[in-house]
Amino acid sequence: MQTKFIFFSGKGGVGKTSMACTTAVHWADAGKRTLIVTTDPAANLSDVFEQEIGHNITPISGVDNLFAMEIDPDISTKEYKERLLAPMRDLFDDEMLKIAEEQLSGPCTEEMASFDKFIDFMEDGTYEVIIFDTAPTGHTIRLLELPVDWSKHIEESSKGSGQTCMGPVTLIQENKKKFDDAIAKLRDTTQTEFIFVMQPEQTSLDETVRALQELGKLGIPTSSLIMNGLIPVAETGNAFFKQRYDMQQTYMAKARQIFSNMRMKTMELFDTELKGIDMFRKCGDRLFAGNDTHE
């Protein structure tokens, strides 16, 4: 079974989590064993699914086949350091272990630990669909740059000092293959889908253009876009909403022109908060109703 990875990215506040959760519920309801993981330090999956989740894989109440997890950077760092140190405990004395632990306390250890946890899921064959609800764009681009940067860093250090900012090469050498495998999966469109969520406004449009260019430099193609938060045409009888609607249509036209080679779905603004299983199913009925504009 080949797992499908779906990444949701975009500017802060555009509705990434809502679209990611909607997609997760859709695939779980379709019978796919599905996991949604958030890499956002300000994660709120617990709030939108209305149940406690945290740093453990948790079944979602009311949806068969759906599980969720919020990656905690502090816990990930402890787990990561322990995974490296554990094999050494039977081989070295306390003094050597202390030195090794100090070497793993560099400035990039936490960054690496979070990513290490993140790509663990890309090696997990337990799920048919894994959805990544990512932090706002800049953080996500950095997250995806890490395997490329670290793979090079480890290779260069192994030929030089043998020391990296994450500790000795000897402790992390086997991670290079893990990073290289992750890079290959991120670039493989048969396994990985990148979906950008945006709002019909200039700042969101500009950030999406920049992010797609940055991903392109990493060799990672973007699959599709979701234009979220559109005012329904039925509400344009009100002058205020008509003016907002007209503005949104202008940016929709720009987006269709700029991203003419990409699939684009649209999602209207709801009159209630988008949270809870019933709302995600309601949203999913519209999102997956075949409203792609560029298929």
From TrEMBL:
Pfam families: ArsA_ATPase. Residues 3-287 form the ArsA/GET3 Anion-transporting ATPase-like domain. InterPro entries: ArsA/GET3_ATPase-like, ATPase_ArsA/GET3, P-loop_NTPase. SUPFAM superfamilies: P-loop containing nucleoside triphosphate hydrolases. Gene3D superfamilies: P-loop containing nucleotide triphosphate hydrolases (3.40.50.300). It comes from the Bacteria. Belongs to the arsA ATPase family. This is ArsA family ATPase.
